[in-house]
From TrEMBL:
A Pfam short name: Condensation
Domain Condensation per the UniProt entry, residue ranges: 24-345
InterPro entries: CAT-like_dom_sf, Condensation_dom
Top-rank taxon, per record: Bacteria
Protein's UniProt name: Condensation domain-containing protein
Annotated SUPFAM superfamilies: CoA-dependent acyltransferases (SSF52777)
Amino acid sequence: MSVADHTLDIEFAGPDSGAAPLTAPLTWGQRAIWETIVRTAPDDHYFNFGHVLKVPGPRRTVAEASTALAALVERHGALRTRLSEPGLPGEVLPDKAGGEPYQRLAERGRLPVVITDDDPDRVLDELAARPFDYVGEWPLRVALVLDGDRVTHVVLVFCHLAADGFGAEIALRDLRMLLLRGDRGGGAIRRPGALQPLDLARWQAGPEGRKAAETAAAHWEREFRRIPPTMFSAPTGSAADPPIWRALLRSPALELAVRSIAHVRRASTSTVLLTAVAALVGRFTGHETCAMLPISANRVRRGTADIVTTMSQEGLFTLDLDLGGAGGASFTDLLRAAGPAALRAYRSAYHDPADRNRVTTTIDLERGESIRPYCCFNDMRFADPGPVACDPDEITTALARTSLSWPMSQEKLNCRFCVHLTVDGVSLTADTRYLSRPDIERFLLELESFLVGAAVR
């Protein structure tokens, strides 16, 4: 960043004064991402994500932007909640904390904010490049980008313990309104205060939460007894250095094909892609049953739509690729079976990780081997582009605009195979000790060919 940068501390004071205790167990989403962070460290900056927000309306002074940021942190408890550990002096432990980490909500504090005139995208990359200090640092990093003495952009980087993609969008929506209205009080945001992570943690530990958890656990237990131990168990070529690589496929033809298939088969584009990825995983690995872990937003229950926290978790999707046939099922048959299987998977995503760990341990012992799919699917698009009728010639002509790049590599990841859907395209992040770089590229190109072929037929 610029040599002229400096840091300003913004004071905040939440509405929680007098509320006790200000600690609670981790929510299911927090615990799920925490376990993933632990397995990925020291490369856990992988889970940081952020946004560049262009200041709406008239450009604001640093003081006005600071006032809006303080109001944002005061409104959303997740942005002033840090990880804590038993043994800190003067703290009230949440029920059943034992020796486990828990969450601690701060009533007040100071948020450091970088003041800079550097390029906003470069600032975003720098703020996101290092892991968070989950105990000592606020779970939000902020920079104000200036043109002269006015703020043009606000750069925010979120710790994944505090927010997922949907939670971050809620925070951005509120900050945009606070900047536009210039009002620190309730007038700028007239919606009632959203559910807070501490409230959610207590609900999950109560009778309604336990009932939902038990239903999800039954699905994991049933399916773990029949799926392959893991989807990627043997090398397909030479490992790269570093071993974790991501390839990004930008393919207008694939997008058109998916929307066309969704139109004909009356399915969502997400289900079409999930099914196609599962089919190709079977082709690459030889497994007749594919087990994948799709990420679910988990925001369908009352009070969770507007909460800033991390709600997203893995569900368990299983698809029998043969479906009783001698030579493998058709893509039409697979799509028909995938609809209800995906619904069961997304329901199972709202689960207590402690139950999942218990189920995993039990089934490991029963089967005498470790059961870990290590195969993920994450549709990160905020809206399904929707089915649409497409001319086959339009789809095949678009193949000329396909491109593939390698935007990321690192030493360590908690998974072996992760497909992400974004507005930029379809990416595959994989451990090259189990899927080589040439095979990562081949998988994405075969996914395009598979879907284009299905659409034009």
